[in-house]
């Protein structure tokens, strides 16, 4: 087609169409409105005609009408679901052959044999259609002009159809891209709001729901018991399946509550009104008492601790306080938040933002300090070891770990604190004889930086690695991932001593302790504190000492605070004692102080 086929006036009309459609696209108008406007403008350039746009459904391979201004609703309905083919009219043929189709007489042309009655009923005498193509040149729809009289298209009308089809192609491709972006956006929103393991709304969704909850709302926070034991005994995969089964059971029990997945082993019920919390707790616990969860050939009778908060602001914070109270009472216990008795705990809740700022400032300015508490050798009463204890010093005030470590864990600052403790402990080893222990977290092992970092620190100061004791929590040792075990065994081969801290607080994996060649077991304070009065504590400690002695592992009693307690420790043959009876935490190791039995007060 040459330029002489079109007059300047006609070219001006086409440019007007381009300008109008591009303006609508730029203004982000709805895509169907843009296509409808293109049809209206094209029809005005051919008196006695209508313009239509159809799109091919890639799944059904049928046509759907996107825009047909001037065509009655009944006519549009009849055009829907037309399948492209040799007799499917001008539009069907344009898509079928991916080429323009110009039909002069629809009443006789064989290309209209399947749709001829439609042409007759609506007096569509001529129909010219061009394919709308995607970026790869594939036909995805059609743009057509249908005349109420028999006529051939001029060069102008052919150019008009070509330009209109190209513009609509841009509109459709752009719409498809927007749809894909929205799909991805929805997918990411789902990931942010839905827990991947259980498919329940997650903690972010809970936060949003709490913001909209009425003043009458109530909340039950559940913490599934014994998951550490199950993961260690049956593997993490089985633990995940158990969490999924627990979630499904809770969904069936939800009733008027909305169920959310909290962190780790926690689940949350949020109620608009919770009038009888005790009865609701009884309903939940009763179900799991009578209905074990079955996985493969195994049956699990699940129990949980529960914290309940009713009405008012801070539901989640108050439920967490109540859950802590429940845990203090042992497994399978519940507690309903009581302002009179629990308000003091609320006042002690961590000021998250404030402590986060203090922590970062302390790490920058040297405010994270190592203090040291001596460990007495019970054979001769001499202190030859010290445990490193972290403190935060700011504006002349010294804060204990309980004030800031919870925030450090939440904000991922524990590895930075560990590094600071290592540096200061190794520096002290250049000044004193003996050994110093440092607490190592699961995050430190997860990051895998310890072997190289420790080697650099002790190597720079010429310290024998054997003088550095790495304390790991019992939970880390009992359920360690294979990578943790390999790392700890490597550190052991490098000469560092390994100790289990707070032994007895969880389900101990004795085989794993032997596998790691542990040097020292530190018996948890809850068994030592009243060992002189509590028969159960005495028997538990006696069993631990028996195991350790036969395995060639030294034992340390933590929280030794009185001579009565030390007398029992001596009787049981525990190797070392740590507590205020012999040494209080101080900025410097307290030297090789001797505490013979006659000097104890």
From TrEMBL:
Domain (EAL) ranges: 352-599
Annotated stretches, region: Disordered: 581-601
Biased composition (Basic and acidic residues): 591-601
Protein source organism: Marinobacterium marinum
PROSITE patterns xrefs: EAL, GGDEF
GGDEF domain mapped to chain residues: 215-339
Domain of life of the source: Bacteria
Protein name, entry field: EAL domain-containing protein
């Amino acid at each position: 087609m040459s330029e002489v086929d079109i007059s300047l006036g006609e070219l001006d009309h086409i440019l007007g169409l381009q300008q109008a459609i591009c303006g609508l696209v730029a203004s982000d108008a709805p895509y169907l409105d843009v296509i409808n406007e293109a049809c209206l403008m094209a029809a005005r350039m051919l008196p006695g005609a209508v313009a239509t746009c159809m799109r091919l459904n890639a799944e059904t391979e049928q046509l759907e009408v996107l825009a047909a201004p001037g065509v009655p609703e009944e006519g549009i309905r009849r055009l829907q679901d037309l399948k492209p083919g040799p007799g499917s009219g001008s539009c069907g043929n344009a898509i079928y052959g991916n080429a323009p189709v110009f039909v002069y007489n629809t009443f006789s042309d064989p290309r209209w044999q399947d749709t001829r009655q439609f042409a007759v009923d609506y007096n569509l005498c001529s129909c010219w259609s061009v394919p709308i193509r995607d970026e790869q040149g594939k036909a995805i729809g059609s743009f057509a002009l249908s005349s109420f009289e028999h006529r051939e298209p001029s060069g102008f009308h052919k150019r008009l159809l070509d330009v209109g089809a190209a513009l609509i192609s841009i509109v459709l491709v752009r719409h498809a891209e927007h749809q894909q972006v929205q799909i991805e956006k929805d997918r990411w929103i789902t990931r942010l709001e839905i827990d991947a393991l259980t498919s329940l709304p997650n903690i972010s969704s809970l936060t949003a729901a709490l913001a909209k909850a009425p003043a009458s709302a109530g909340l039950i926070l559940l913490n599934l018991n014994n998951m550490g034991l199950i993961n260690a005994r049956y593997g993490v995969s089985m633990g995940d399946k158990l969490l999924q089964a627990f979630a499904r059971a809770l969904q069936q029990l939800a009733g008027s509550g909305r169920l959310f997945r909290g962190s780790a082993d926690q689940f949350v019920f949020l109620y608009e009104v919770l009038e009888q919390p005790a009865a609701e707790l009884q309903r939940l616990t009763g179900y799991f008492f009578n209905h074990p969860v079955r996985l493969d050939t195994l049956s699990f009778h699940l129990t949980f601790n529960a914290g309940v908060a009713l009405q008012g602001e801070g539901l989640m914070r108050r439920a967490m306080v109540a859950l802590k109270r429940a845990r203090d009472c042992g497994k399978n216990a519940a507690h309903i938040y009581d302002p009179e008795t629990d308000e003091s705990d609320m006042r002690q809740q961590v000021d998250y933002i404030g402590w986060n700022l203090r922590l970062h400032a302390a790490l920058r300015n040297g405010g994270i300090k190592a203090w040291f508490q001596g460990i007495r050798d019970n054979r001769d009463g001499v202190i030859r070891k010290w445990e490193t204890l972290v403190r935060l010093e700011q504006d002349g005030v010294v804060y204990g770990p309980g004030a800031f470590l919870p925030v450090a864990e939440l904000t991922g600052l524990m590895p930075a604190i560990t590094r600071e403790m290592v540096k200061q402990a190794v520096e002290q080893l250049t000044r004193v004889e003996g050994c110093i222990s440092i607490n190592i977290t699961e995050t430190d092992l997860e990051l895998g930086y310890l072997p190289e970092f420790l080697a650099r620190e002790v190597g720079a100061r010429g310290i024998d690695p054997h003088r550095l004791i790495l304390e790991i929590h019992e939970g880390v040792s009992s359920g360690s991932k294979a990578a943790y075990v390999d790392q700890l065994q490597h550190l052991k081969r490098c000469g560092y001593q390994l100790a289990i801290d707070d032994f007895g607080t969880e389900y101990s994996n004795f085989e794993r302790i032997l596998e790691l060649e542990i040097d020292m077991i530190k018996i948890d304070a809850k068994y030592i504190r009243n060992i002189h009065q509590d028969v159960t504590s005495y028997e538990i400690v006696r069993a631990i000492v028996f195991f350790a002695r036969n395995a060639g592992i030294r034992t340390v009693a933590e929280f030794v605070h009185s001579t009565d307690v030390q007398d029992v420790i001596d009787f049981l043959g525990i190797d070392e004692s740590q507590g205020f009876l012999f040494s209080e935490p101080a900025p410097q190791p307290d030297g090789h102080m001797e505490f013979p039995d006659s000097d104890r007060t």
